[in-house]
Amino acid sequence: MYGRKVKLRFLFIILILTTLILSVFLVLKSLEENVVYFQSPSEIKELSELDKKKIRVGGMVKKRSIFITSNEVKFIITDFKNEINVTYSGAIPNLFEEGKGVVAEGFLKDRNFFSATKILAKHDENYMPPEVEEALGNK
Amino acid sequence: MLLSVIGHYSLILGLCLSLLIIFLSIKNFKNSEYLNTKILFSSFFQLILVSLSFLCLVFSFVFSDFSNETVFNNSHTTKPLFYKISGTWGNHEGSLLLWLLVLTLFIFLFLIKTKKQPVKYKILTLLFQQIIIIGFFIFLIQTSNPFNYLYPIPDEGLGLNPILQDPALAIHPPILYLGYVGSSIIFSSALAATCLNMISKKWASHIKKWVLISWVFLTLGIMLGSIWAYYELGWGGFWFWDPVENVSLMPWLALTTLLHCILVLEKKQILTSWVIILSISTFTLSMCGTFLVRSGILNSVHTFANDPGRGLFILVFLFSLILISLFVFFFFHKSTQNELNNFSWLSKETSIIINNWFMMYFLSVVLIGTVYPIFLDVLSSQKISVGPPFYHKLIVPFLIPFLLAMAIGPKLKWVKSNLDDKFSMILLLIISVLISFFILKIFEANFLINTILISSATYLFFITFRDFFIRKFNNIAQNIAHFGFSLLILSILFNSLFSSEIITNLKIGETFDDSKTKIFFKSIKQKEEKNFKSIVANFNIENSKGIIETLSPELRIYNQPNIVTSEADIKTTMMSDKFIVINVVQNQDYFNIRYQVKPFMLWIWLSVLLISFGGLLSLFKKNYE
């Protein structure tokens, strides 16, 4: 009925389509699972329910709020309207300082406590992560 | 002052020359028996002008001429000479000037090195390349002039960001740019060849050299950046799926795919459209890289200066280039009819095409992961980030068929073939499965997917290793590159499986002890250097076997700009790296300590070197197979 060439081409197109659909599906699914949202302390205060997923919190490290023990660092992130307590046990980046911008990644324990798994390093003394700038911009 | 004037005007003259070259080449194109020597001469002169401009900037940095805004922003008198020079391309303006320099250098080399191709083709390539060059000239002069004046002249500059003051990062941009910009030649000549309908075996073997050159440089450039991130950023790893890393990986994936397609095209007149699309996308992705890194859209370590005007310019420029190339592709390209004739499932070209699909899949995963957050931000101003789990989940499982196809593919012949030594290949497969099973059993890291992954990587390792003896020097370049790739995957796998990490806070004199490792914080010493103060800490680290090792990481407090950086101390051996980095938080007695044991780190770098060596070898080899 059809030539060998047409059949082959037909098979080829079907193969490509299935692969495409499959990979798009995989990518979207994985994206949904692994995306990390950024929130400011004020946004967290307004949350109706707590997310179990990993999030990022950004703002300023409150002055005189850093407290270090042998296995933990505690500090407060503020956006000058609301603040949130952070506990963290991990490597501290160079530019983590009081009164400077910070982004912490981790999980919310409740609306006031955040357990960080990572603090992001920024490598310029004048640099402010755009998210933090925006979070502070609403003050 | 004088240097800035010379530099600035040579840039403007260079732009004028571009217009002249375009005018000359259009005239030459109409009666094209031979290449007009005026064209050659003007593009040589253009190269000289851009080099002159670049040298002016270098010397402004060397002499700390702070009347120049770029120098003021990025240099300081106390900086060592080496970093004054490397500071030239450590900033936005200088690095773009370097782009331009490499662009003009490559087109000149292309003109004198290409002898056997038709004159029309050379002229057309030059024309397309000049469009890109003009774009960069205007971009430099308009939005990011490296020779802006400052008045009154400041006494002292702001200094180069200390994390950029590093030997690996000093040579990382030039090498990476050689790779990026090399793809511009591929782009221009692919378009030229499409216009003249001469995408053929002959063209493939001519352009292959350029593909190889940019591929080798791109590979090395990415590796240097990765080495730098490993020891300078103190994140304790070599790849973080940071957007900036991703944008360099994307052109690499496209270029690697192109490299393999060119080989197919060289043998058989197939995949012509595919080769053109890949050539276009490689360069577009390189441009995207520059755009995303330099426009400040990406939230990353490289974004120091943000200027939306620049971003807009590159975006418009990029889209016009894409439009031009799409226009050329759809109007001039006639696909050859015999594409699917004598096509067999078990042949070298099939396996290359299959691997192409995987590469394209990897590329789209990286692309989506990098671009999706930007889109979401623009559309709904929701800030998100896509972390490593996303990439690992989507890429790692597909490495298995990818590696297997890589092992079997080169064994097949062109057109149609049967596997010759089925027996020994199956035997090797069984051996690799057993070996990886036992390795994972011994180290108690038994995961199904890891076993399969390591098996397929070991399989590729054995097959390519065996080929060194069986095939002797037949196609040794490909063999070395594939062997290097198997080593790379193996080292990365073992590295990620068997790395261990301790993070703790210690005061001086304290000891951390978790029964396997003892970390004793012995002392600190202060030193005063020319442009920074340093605190060197001494640690004694005792492992479970009682072997004590001393490591001395360092903290540097730079005076201009006032930044603290951590210098990791790394003890490298063949089998593993011991990595320690410290940090201090202001007004606190505690030091933050991160200690890692990372197996096979050295092998990751070595295998990448091996891969690029394979590419280099193939460049110097006259006849393939």
Compact description:
The complex is a heterodimer of chains A (139) and B (625). Chain A has 139 residues and is α+β, with helices and mostly antiparallel strands.
Overall description:
Chain A has 139 residues and is α+β, with helices and mostly antiparallel strands. Chain A has 2 domains: 1-34; 37-137, OB fold (Dihydrolipoamide Acetyltransferase, E2P), CATH 2.40.50.140. Chain A has helices at residues 4-34, 41-45, 130-137, and strands at 35-39, 55-61, 67-68, 73-78, 83-88, 101-108, 113-119. A 5-stranded mixed β-barrel of chain A has the order 2-4-5-7-6. The radius of gyration of chain A is 23 Å and the shape is elongated. The mean pLDDT of chain A is 80. With 625 residues, chain B is of the alpha+beta class. Chain B is built from 17 helices and 11 strands. Strand 1 (35-39) of chain A pairs antiparallel with strand 1 of chain B.
Distance between the termini of chain B: 57 Å
Shape of chain B: flat
Q: Main sheet of chain B, how many strands, which sense, barrel?
A: 6 strands, antiparallel
Count of the separate structural domains of chain A: 2
Content of β-strand of chain B: 5-15%
The assigned structural class of chain B equals: alpha+beta
Topology order of chain B in helix (H) and strand (E) letters: HHHHHHHHHHHHEHHHHEEEEEEEEEEH
Based on the coordinates given, report the CATH architecture of the largest domain in chain A.
Beta Barrel
Largest interface: A-B, 45 and 51 residues
